[in-house]
Amino acid sequence: MKLVTAIIKPFMLDAVRESLSEIGVQGITVTEVKGFGRQKGHTELYRGAEYVVDFLPKTKLEVAVSDSQVDSVVESISKAAHSGKIGDGKIFVSPLEQVIRIRTGETGEDAL
Amino acid sequence: MESQIFELQYAMDTFYFLVCGALVMWMAAGFAMLESGLVRSKNTTEILTKNIALYAIACTMYLVCGYELMYGGGFFLSGTDNVASMTDEAVAGVLAAQADFRGGVEDAGLPYSGASDFFFQVVFVATAMSIVSGAVAERMKLWAFLAFAVVMTGFIYPVEGGWTWGGNAVPFIGELSYSDYAGSGIVHMAGAAAALAGVILLGARKGKYGKNGEVNAIPGANLPLATLGTFILWMGWFGFNGGSTLQLSGIGVANEVASVFVNTNAAAAGGLIGALIVARILFGKADLTMALNGALAGLVAITAEPADPSALQASLIGAVGGVLVVFSILTLDKLKIDDPVGAISVHGVVGLFGVLVVPFTDGDATIGGQLLGALVIFVWVFVCSLIVWAILKAVMGIRVTEEEEFNGVDLSECGMEAYPEFTGGK
Questions:
Q1: Which of residues 32-61 of A touch B (CB under 8 A)?
Q2: CB under 8 Å to B162, separation ≥6 — which residues?
Q3: Can you name the residues that pair with A90 across neighbouring β-strands?
Q4: How far is CA B86 from each of CA B247, B277, B365, B402, rounded to the nearest angstrom?
Q5: B282 neighbourhood in chain A, CB within 8 Å
Q6: Which of A42, A85, B148, B191 counts the most CB atoms within 10 A of its CB?
Q7: Which residue in A42, A46, A51, A55 has the most chain B C-beta atoms within 10 A of its own C-beta, making it the best mutation to test that interface?
Q8: Do A47 and B216 touch (CB under 8 A)?
Q9: B24-41 burial by CB neighbour count: b if 16+ within 10 A, else e?
Q10: Taking a C-beta distance cutoff of 8 angstroms, is the pair B288, B277 a contact?
């Protein structure tokens, strides 16, 4: 099992959610986050004084998937969240030791 | 028949005065919204508390002694009409005075209820005090501010208002020949002078000015509120200037009232446009907060003489005020005078401009008389305020600790957050 964590542009979330539903992903967790990468921050202006916004708003989504699904999930997110411009975000794939469904007590791939 | 017309005129003028007073009262809401929009969310509860508490203190202190000092209305309004003035004899006396007043006899008594006069004057005191609260926002102790409000509204403002509107002689100088229709100087510049004295003793907000002289932005939390506040002030100003005509019942005064409304509106519009364009040229962007300050600057500028200018002149006077306020805000920042809402620029600098521009449209006013009046008001209010702030600083301290400032004065002064469901406001 793998945990796919993606940082994307907030307004791409709907498109990503739809494309994940299409390939049969059963659930995702979404968090509003802030951060910076190569895009860095940008400057804003208030009463004549410039200030730097270092951390830009991004959306983080986490999907737990079976090994067989990983490639299609990664591909699906990459396509849906792609604009070609700087700041599109990143996808991290990490191993997942165990999954437990709290309601039934199921474990492993049954709990996905 | 004639006496019935007098009764109607008296009733109409009294009603007009009361409604205008209620409009000015609503300006307190405008200041509260404007200021809470331009501070950070961690200081919202405190600025709201300050605004509504100062309104209550101003009303109470003016009732206790302010009205007596300014107009001789008696301590605790003992000289103002009450239930006793509702008897037939009392009404007959008022009617006789009305006949004299309408007949042009000098010193014939008020053409409206004395209580309505108090009501209209008391809301002006609150306006002057509201100006102070924005300038000292985000770092002053709540109770030091409220203690200052007691002295300002009970003594400093009434004495100064007595010299100008009340016709009292100024010590060592005598009677002023100073013309200020609704109080560009008497109310607005006075409030700004008190604010300036406070800010000088208080110091800037932490992080506002860098070591190398750079000015850091501390963006306000809620620009919709700031905009709503400006709209409310704009509306309340029709009562502020319109009511200062003091009368409505007659073709001449009714026309004057209409012209005051038109000019007040035109000046605010001119001020907003002026500030918006200057900000666009200087910064490359349309700075909303500067535009809001510009509208208020236009209103302050026209307040000293809203009746005599033509509508076009009023627009131009407002526009100059709007341009002036942008440069004033930038200059005060260079001088490290930290004013989160721009109150000193809007009410002080532009208030002075409003006073000095009166002779251009009102032939009876002179530059010399205006300068002397403005100087008397500024020196009196600034020096008195400086002394009071200094005493408060020595006795109880006027500034919260650095840690309290960092955490927000909402927690240190009021113990509650404005938006408890959104924790961790920066």
A1: 44-51
A2: B69, B70, B71, B168
A3: A7
A4: 22, 55, 40, 57
A5: 48
A6: B191
A7: A46
A8: no
A9: bbebbbbbbbbbbbbbbb
A10: no
Which chain A residues touch B217 with a CB distance below 8 Å? Answer: 44-47, 49-51
Q: How many helices (H) and strands (E) does chain A have?
A: 2, 6
Strand, helix or coil at B382? helix
Interface mutation vs chain B, best among A47, A50, A52, most B CBs within 10 Å: A47
Range list of H helices, B338-366: 343, 350-361
Task: At A41, give phi and psi (nearest 5°).
Answer: -95, -165
pLDDT of residue B425: 46
Neighbours of A69 (CB within 10 A): 20
Other CB atoms within a 10 A radius of the CB of residue A29 amount to 10
The residues facing A63 across adjacent strands are A4
Point out the least confidently predicted range of A6-15, B46-55, B88-97, B214-223.
Answer: B88-97
Helix, strand, coil share of chain A (percent; to 5): 30, 40, 35
Select the residue of B220, B283, B330 nearest A45 (Cβ to Cβ): B283
CA distance B365 to A75: 79
To test the contact with chain A by mutation, choose from B276, B280, B285 the residue with the greatest count of A C-beta atoms within 10 A, namely: B285
Name residue, tokens 């939390």: B221
What whole-number distance in Å separates Cα of residue B407 and Cα of residue B426?
A: 8
Q: What is the pTM of this model?
A: 0.89
Provide the strand spans (E) within chain A.
Answer: 2-8, 29-35, 42-46, 49-53, 56-65, 89-95
pLDDT in the model for residue A38: 84
Model confidence over B76-129: pLDDT tens digits?
A: 988 877 666 777 888 888 888 888 888 777 777 778 888 999 999 999 999 999
- pLDDT-derived band of residue B145, with 50, 70 and 90 as boundaries? very high
Q: How many other CB atoms are there within 10 angstroms of residue B188's CB atom?
A: 31
